[in-house]
């Protein structure tokens, strides 16, 4: 007779992905569409609108002419010229084409007083509202970076809170703050309040996304984790695509921000629908609530739960939670054991690489030739084949090979896009989109891979650290894109090289396919040692013994 019974064993009997899990899984996935809206909204609310200096009070139309000779004459007579940057958008001559003959004018270049805007691609943008152009053009990169700093803070804060107070409470709290500050962003009267409100929204996206992801994978069995993880990420891509279509309909940036925020009112009802993670309840010695929830799962899945099986689970939990005074594991425990520490650093680096490249390629989609909204939609659609690829390969080749293969391929095609003559536009865009597809597949893999690497007692904190590492990459990414003003290939060169290096490092991570989720710190270390056939020492056995006394351990 089995002496101990863990939650994965119980799930194999009551249903690894039955009706109960499916219903709650879909409910958890839908708000992720809003996370995509907010994380990628700067493509439209901070869209670049072409501009030039207003030459006189009657000059109100952007210079567009089918007669190139006339247009060139006006430009050369009115604006300074630079061989690299072309005609100036921030300076003009006082003695310009329209002011000739006016007294007290000289052929001197001065900064713009007013601007004329080109509304061909975008009719409204916070760039125009807050004048983030010329000597303030770096403020766009700053706003995106500050947003990602918010995501960085939220990754750690909400991860810690959800491990301490429960997934459900933190998830709903994040939705409330996302709604409030999303609306305040649309009402901002200056760049600084706009950026601060966006930073808070960025923090809430971590609370919504990470906690929902953790909840989703903790409610299903190991056989279903791959499908659940990949489908979850596909909802983010769906939001990516939908916001492009929405941008065709709503052209004012403030109303666009309101439109992507308002659905949050619906999700406030989740307080009454989304259950707490049963794994978290068991790990935190809340046996009565856990038992009630387990019975509800069995009933919903039309499965009869033997009383002796439930008793065995509770007996195991009681054995593991005997000492209430034991301190709970913290983020620092990630670095105490050698193999856990090594794989933590490798995973953190991969998150840094994948996130930096993903957001860099996503934010730059509007800079490609053609309609920026259409390009954004295409950039979102290429993610879906990446996720389909994961569904076909993750359980066949394992997590490690898929992650390493996708990162390596992404690095190669991104670097190849730099070797292709830039006038062959279709090939450059094709290679870039292939790179984006592989980076997306890597993102889907690294989320699942990380959940399976870390033990239950610190899983959400570890995921928070992973996301923090990712935010370092995505925080730097806007400034890398800004460096394209100095040397255009530089951002893609960096994205390609780091992706290739990340693919190589991925080969040193242990495989987790079809393995039980580790529950304690010792479980995670022992599993790694078994994979590389290293004898388990007495110190680790003693740690496992002490770990099992920990009140946060999930048997």
UniProtKB/TrEMBL annotation:
<keyword id="KW-1133">Transmembrane helix</keyword>
<dbReference type="InterPro" id="IPR020846">
    <property type="entry name" value="MFS_dom"/>
</dbReference>
<keyword id="KW-0812">Transmembrane</keyword>
<keyword id="KW-0472">Membrane</keyword>
<dbReference type="InterPro" id="IPR005828">
    <property type="entry name" value="MFS_sugar_transport-like"/>
</dbReference>
<feature type="domain" description="Major facilitator superfamily (MFS) profile">
    <location>
        <begin position="70"/>
        <end position="514"/>
    </location>
</feature>
<feature type="transmembrane region" description="Helical">
    <location>
        <begin position="25"/>
        <end position="47"/>
    </location>
</feature>
<feature type="transmembrane region" description="Helical">
    <location>
        <begin position="170"/>
        <end position="189"/>
    </location>
</feature>
<feature type="transmembrane region" description="Helical">
    <location>
        <begin position="344"/>
        <end position="361"/>
    </location>
</feature>
<feature type="transmembrane region" description="Helical">
    <location>
        <begin position="426"/>
        <end position="449"/>
    </location>
</feature>
<dbReference type="GO" id="GO:0022857">
    <property type="term" value="F:transmembrane transporter activity"/>
</dbReference>
<feature type="transmembrane region" description="Helical">
    <location>
        <begin position="227"/>
        <end position="249"/>
    </location>
</feature>
<dbReference type="InterPro" id="IPR036259">
    <property type="entry name" value="MFS_trans_sf"/>
</dbReference>
<feature type="transmembrane region" description="Helical">
    <location>
        <begin position="373"/>
        <end position="395"/>
    </location>
</feature>
<feature type="transmembrane region" description="Helical">
    <location>
        <begin position="461"/>
        <end position="484"/>
    </location>
</feature>
<dbReference type="Pfam" id="PF00083">
    <property type="entry name" value="Sugar_tr"/>
</dbReference>
<dbReference type="GO" id="GO:0016020">
    <property type="term" value="C:membrane"/>
</dbReference>
<feature type="transmembrane region" description="Helical">
    <location>
        <begin position="255"/>
        <end position="274"/>
    </location>
</feature>
<feature type="transmembrane region" description="Helical">
    <location>
        <begin position="490"/>
        <end position="509"/>
    </location>
</feature>
<protein>
    <recommendedName>
        <fullName>Major facilitator superfamily (MFS) profile domain-containing protein</fullName>
    </recommendedName>
</protein>
<feature type="transmembrane region" description="Helical">
    <location>
        <begin position="402"/>
        <end position="420"/>
    </location>
</feature>
<feature type="transmembrane region" description="Helical">
    <location>
        <begin position="195"/>
        <end position="215"/>
    </location>
</feature>
């Amino acid at each position: 007779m089995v002496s101990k019974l863990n939650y994965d064993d119980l799930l194999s009997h009551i249903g690894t992905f039955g009706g109960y899990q499916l219903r709650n899984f879909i409910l958890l996935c839908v708000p992720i569409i809003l996370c995509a809206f907010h994380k990628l909204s700067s493509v439209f609310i901070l869209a670049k609108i072409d501009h030039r200096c207003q030459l006189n009070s009657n000059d109100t139309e952007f210079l567009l002419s089918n007669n190139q000779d006339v247009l060139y004459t006006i430009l050369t007579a009115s604006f300074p010229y630079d061989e690299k940057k072309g005609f100036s958008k921030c300076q003009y001559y006082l003695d310009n084409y329209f002011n000739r003959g006016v007294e007290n004018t000289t052929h001197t270049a001065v900064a713009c007083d007013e601007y004329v805007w080109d509304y061909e691609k975008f009719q409204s943008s916070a760039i125009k509202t807050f004048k983030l152009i010329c000597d303030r053009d770096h403020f766009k990169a700053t706003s995106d970076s500050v947003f990602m700093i918010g995501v960085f803070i939220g990754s750690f804060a909400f991860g810690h809170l959800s491990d301490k107070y429960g997934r459900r409470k933190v998830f709903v709290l994040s939705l409330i703050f996302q709604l409030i500050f999303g609306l305040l962003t649309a009402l901002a009267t200056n760049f600084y309040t706009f950026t601060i409100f966006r930073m808070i929204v960025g923090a809430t996206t971590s609370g919504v996304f990470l906690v929902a992801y953790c909840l989703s994978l903790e409610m299903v069995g190991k056989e279903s984790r791959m499908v659940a993880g990949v489908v979850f990420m596909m909802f983010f891509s769906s939001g990516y695509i939908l916001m492009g279509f929405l941008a065709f309909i709503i052209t004012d940036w403030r109303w666009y921000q309101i439109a992507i925020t308002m659905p949050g009112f619906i999700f406030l009802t989740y307080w009454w629908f989304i259950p707490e993670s049963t794994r978290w309840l068991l790990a935190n010695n809340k046996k009565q609530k856990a038992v009630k929830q387990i019975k509800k799962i069995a009933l919903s899945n039309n499965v009869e739960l033997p009383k002796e099986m439930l008793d065995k689970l509770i007996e195991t939990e009681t054995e593991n939670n005997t000492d209430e005074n034991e301190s709970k594991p913290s983020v620092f425990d990630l670095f105490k054991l050698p193999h856990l520490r090594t794989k933590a650093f490798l995973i953190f680096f991969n998150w840094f690489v994948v996130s930096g490249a993903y957001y860099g390629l996503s934010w730059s989609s509007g800079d490609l030739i053609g309609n920026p909204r259409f390009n954004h939609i295409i950039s979102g659609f290429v993610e879906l084949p990446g996720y389909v690829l994961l569904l076909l390969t993750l359980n066949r080749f394992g997590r490690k090979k898929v992650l390493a293969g996708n990162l390596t391929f992404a690095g190669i095609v991104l670097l190849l896009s730099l070797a292709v003559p830039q006038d062959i536009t279709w090939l450059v865009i094709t290679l870039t989109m292939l790179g984006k597809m592989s980076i997306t597949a890597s993102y889907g893999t690294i989320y699942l891979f990380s959940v399976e690497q870390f033990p239950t007692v610190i899983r959400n904190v570890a995921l928070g650290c992973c996301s923090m590492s990712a935010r370092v990459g995505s925080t730097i990414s806007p400034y890398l894109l800004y460096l394209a003003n100095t040397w255009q290939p530089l951002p893609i060169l960096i994205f390609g090289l780091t992706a290739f290096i990340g693919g190589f490092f991925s080969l040193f991570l242990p495989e987790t396919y079809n393995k039980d989720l580790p529950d304690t710190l010792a479980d995670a270390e022992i599993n790694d040692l078994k994979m590389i056939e290293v004898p388990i020492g007495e110190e680790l056995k003693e740690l496992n013994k002490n770990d099992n006394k920990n009140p946060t351990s999930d048997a």
